[in-house]
Amino acid sequence: MNACWDEAACCDRVNGNWEYCQNGPGDHMCTTFTDSGKQCCKGDNGGGTTSGGGGGDYDYADVLGKSILFYEAQRSGHYEGRIDWRGDSAVNDEGCNGEDLEGGYYDAGDNLKLHFPFAAAFTFLSWSATSFPEAYNVAGEMDNLLDGIKWATDFMIKCHTAPDALVAQIGDVDADHGFWGRPEDMNMGRPTQCIGPGNPGSDLASDYASAMASASILFKDRDPEYAATLLEHAKQLVQFAFDHPGKYTDSISTTVYGSSNYHDEMGLGVAWIAKATGDPADLARAKQVYGEFAGDLDYNGAWINWDDKTPAFVAMMCELTGEAEHCNQLQTWCDGKIDGSPYSPKGEIFIDKWGSLRHAGNVAAICIRAASLGVNREKYLGFVRQQIHYILGSTGRSYIVGYGVNPPTHCHHRGASCRGPNDCCDPNCYDPNPHVLTGALVGGPGAPDDYYNDQRNDYVMNEVALDYNSGFQMALAGLLAETTSGTTTSAPPTTSGSGGPTTTRDPSSCPGGDLEGCIALCPEEDADIYQDCVHECVQNCHK
């Protein structure tokens, strides 16, 4: 694929490229108009007309709304939402002492409520709205987003049953995974597991705190009393985390999502409280914790996912302070991921095979926030566009259910795959899912080779989950804010303590005119040569 800097050149180039490449009948040759993401494509051996196919015009606002719909499909309890094939489910869920735990969200394609990734996902969603509110306002989706966040935080309040007691997860993992059916048809027992002073979980408690503190900012003007309630819960949870340190995975049985550390979550929780209160004492504490935890956290190279929030902590500290110590560290992290990771032939940054697009979206989320804070803006915006456009269809297929060209039709999801107990309700069924799980991001390629298997039983490539969409949605909101206002900067640009100001990319130094075009020129015959070429493209085209 090649990229152009103006729309006329985009559509002119595809005609010339088609004649040269001769892809064959039914194939598409595309070129991207970089500023808007529009693609011109030709197919049918060059006989077709130039159009917006093969990915088409990327309607960020439309996709943002669809991503919010995905979360509505994941709701548990007495159903309230816009998904007509969902109904009431798990209305009798109870806490460890019989508390009412109706509500919340199912984690993925199963019917478990797993609160470690759940809290992390909704922190990302609230962060996307505090960072890029104009995106949700322009898309007309702010009310829908806040409705979904409140569905989550109402449930979090229920789960925080005492200042030092918290629900960790609900459901029997083996029984749930042994049942392929709609949540409305579940009849197995759903045990609840909790943490407390004698069986702590600083990671989980702090994640709840981040989710509730970030949400409190969104509700501060609309519902001050509710915002204050959320913030008080967040403060209690951070206190619980520091008073009783430990990993939640050491305190409950049958954990699905492991935890490797708890200092990243504790740091992020403290940072979000500082953001929510605006109190200089809370900010001073966040800065102190950042320094104290430096020996336990990999500020340079950590992953960003449901387990490790270290990069989010760094980004929040840059956001809060604007200081070189934190903003330069954020740049080091983004540069390390962008320049040091392998890429697929068509441009997907590849972090890990399990939910590879989830990881691409998470990196994009951190780096779009960095760009909006004035950190290496042009480079990071270019990278984020490339990753989000890959997800939306720049390769000729979309990875968002119900959106774009050739979207997934067999995502690994019980509710979407079953009309009722007598339907083709089986993970090995080859029929397309009878219900469209609109807006869900599937896992994507399982290797850096762009190969994707759209089969229901492929839970590596075709799983969906709360945390899959959250980073992607934040990055998408950042891009929409960029196209809406011409800038995503929501805080004063920071200056580098040693690196000086960032520079604007010189198109003449970038073969192919753009990162995607440059990567398209890399020889694929030798993997080592290809990766070296991709890294050179990243260095030359993202400056």
Question: Could you walk me through the main structural features you see in this protein, from its secondary elements to its overall organization?
Answer:
There is one protein chain. The protein is mainly alpha-helical. The chain has two domains: about 1-55; about 60-500, Glycosyltransferase (Alpha/alpha barrel), CATH 1.50.10. The chain has 18 helices and six strands. It has helices at about 5-20, 60-75, 115-130, 135-140, 140-160, 175, 200-220, 225-245, 265-275, 280-290, 310-320, 325-340, 355-370, 375-390, 415, 465-485, 515-520, 525-540, and strands at about 1-5, 30-35, 40, 115, 165-170, 190-195. Helix 7 (about 200-220) packs antiparallel against helix 8 (about 225-245) and helix 11 crosses helix 12 (about 325-340). The longest helix has 20 residues, at about 225-245. The model is unreliable at about 1-5, about 15-30, about 40-55 and about 485-505 (pLDDT under 50).
Cα-based radius of gyration, to the nearest Å: 23 Å
Shape, per Cα inertia axes: globular
Determine the strand fraction and express it as a percent band. Answer: under 5%
Second CATH tier, the architecture of the largest domain: Alpha/alpha barrel
Structural class: mainly alpha
What is the level 1 CATH name of the largest domain?
Mainly Alpha
Q: How many separate structural domains?
A: 2
Strand order of the largest sheet: 1-2-3
- Calculate the terminal CA-CA distance, rounded to whole Å: 20 Å
Main sheet summary: 3 strands, mixed
Helix content: 40-55%
Alpha plus pi helix count: 18
Low-confidence stretches: 1-6, 15-28, 42-56, 487-507
- Beta strand count: 6
User: Can you tell me the CATH topology of the largest domain?
Assistant: Glycosyltransferase
The H-and-E topology, N to C, reads as EHEEHEHHHEHEHHHHHHHHHHHH
User: Quick check: average pLDDT?
Assistant: 86
